Amino acid sequence: MQLSASQLTPQTHTWLSQRPKECSSQLLVGQQRALNGLTAALRQTGAYGHCFAIVPRGFNHREVFDECFATTTWQHSRWFDWLYLADPDDALRPLCVNVPSGNAFAVIGALQHILQQPLDQRDDLVEELVTSFDTRALRDYIQRVKQKTFDDFASDQFATVIVGHEHPAPYYYCDRVSESQLFGQMGVQSIGGTVRSDLHLLEPGWILKANGGVLAIDIDALLDQPAMYKRLKEVLKSGYFEWPQPTMEAGAAYFYRPEPVPIDIKIILVGSRSSYATLTDYDDDFSDLFPFLADFQSRYDTTQQPVSEYFKFLDYVWDVADVLPLTEDAYAAVLTELSRWAEHQHELSLDAIALLQLLKQANAVASHEEKTQIDSDSIRSAVKHQRERGGYIEEVSRRSILNNEVRIDTAGKVVGQVNGLTVVSVAGVEFGEPSRITATIHYGDGDIIDIERKSELSGNIHTKGVMILSAYLAHHFARHEPMSVSATVVFEQSYHEVDGDSASLGELCCLISALADVPFKQSVALTGAIDQFGQVQAIGGVNEKIEGFFDLCALRGLDGNHRVLIPKSNQKQLVLRPDIVQAVEQGQFHIHTVDHVDEALSYLCDMPVKDLYRQVKLNAHHEQESENRSWWQRWFS
């Protein structure tokens, strides 16, 4: 089916008609699934109720959790100040005591006052202290020291505040993961030749700072140091935090053992989907400790959710970008680009960082041209500049084709040759370019030789695609008698590994051309995967592939005969550049969708597909008769 220009881009006017006159800023639009997972985790307590948050690229993690915790809290948050108090019976074993949040220094002051009083005058003070700041650990400590004086303490350090919470945060975030940042450290010092540690040398990490609340941790940084991930699991399973111990080389400091701190915390590991899959597959404890998943999505489906909500996201990014206001046509250009990033006509990207960069660059263009608003020309200029900045490799590749260093025909007809479409990825830059696929036939037993695989330049998926097209040919032409011809197929002038099955449609058509000895049009390029019955299946990178062939044809001169064949199931992924849409509208370039290999063959040759298949069978029968003759009969015939 030939596509019209209106089918090559999303219907942005429909989206714009749903734009509210007034809307609030919101980052997390369309993220209800993730928010539900996070809320479920925050409703549960215990060692086996933590959460993993999959946050795709394009999101600032802090901004995501700032918005999440603006309205949601861990229902089991319990904030305490944590102190270490000297043990009168053991100078090397300071005791851990928690007191109500914000009262650490008041408790230390009260304890010091009690210890300074005569023994017979302490009861009322002790009762007042316990009544005002009642915790079990504090009561236990008072019972231990209420009959002591400062002279009874072997340590010259009486108390230190490890963590104080006058104004606890909704959550804490640890992005620079190191031993000291996450777990804290116990320092040592040398006094009179003796290495020792003491209360004032204890420095808390995020585990203690967030104790009683929520701590988000960057999992990729954590997994760079597996020993820390293992230790985190031990803390969560035991419910206690033990200070990192100095090595034996530290001498006397090695025996300094502060009492473990009870831990009651909600952990959120933040990372990518690949990190989540790795932990799920290789860590037996992971699913037990982190049963909840908050899966933030990178695209907004306009068929499932109201488009009006998406404008809240746009308003949020625009506000953060701090740029000029956008005109109506600028919104249309932005929505088109966002749909292109999502690679779907009914979806919009949620990549806030990329959108922020686009708006800032468009704002620079508009400001340079002394405009008071960002219009569609500013947006398109920013997009064009982005493409040009990363387009050097693409330019060099295309120049090699124009100079005939790499041969790609875009006119005429050739037997056993078609133009496939590929996507090249180099140094973070992706672009489409055509690739010449050729096939030859010879005497044999019906097998297809994939030169890419023989030369070890074929990936597993590409090899699978060649096997599938072999099965299709065998099913179609060798069901009742064997074919006495074999074929070779190759990507010409390809010197790197070829993977993916998107070329299998082109390879099959190329083989049929060679088997039938019928020339195919070189003004046509095609892409698509196939199954064993010839059905054409979806592929990736469809926009880049079309644009790569169009750019080559445009440089050589469009004549109205150039066309691209893509799978019908890829139609909704089309978000093409304005110049291609214009060329299609003017009839200079054509895009067709195909659902079966027969449809593709009808565009490639000027004869009915039935006649083409009949020619394949006739040639195969002729080769069979030729093979049955002696060599000298074949030679002199």
From TrEMBL:
Pfam families given in the database record: AAA_32, Lon_C, LonB_AAA-LID
Q: Which UniProt keywords apply?
A: Hydrolase, Protease, Serine protease
Catalytic activity annotated for this protein?
Answer: Hydrolysis of proteins in presence of ATP
Catalytic machinery residues: S502, K545
Q: Which domain of life is it from?
A: Bacteria
Q: Which residues form the Lon proteolytic domain?
A: 412-607
A Gene Ontology biological process noted in the UniProt record is: proteolysis
Single GO MF descriptor? peptidase activity
Q: What is its EC number?
A: 3.4.21.53
- What InterPro entries does its record include? AAA_32 (IPR041699), Lon_proteolytic (IPR008269), Lon_Prtase (IPR027065), LonB_AAA-LID (IPR046843), P-loop_NTPase (IPR027417), Ribosomal_Su5_D2-typ_SF (IPR020568), Ribsml_uS5_D2-typ_fold_subgr (IPR014721)
PROSITE patterns registered for this protein in UniProt: LON_PROTEOLYTIC (PS51786)
Q: Which family does it belong to?
A: Belongs to the peptidase S16 family.
Protein name, entry field: endopeptidase La
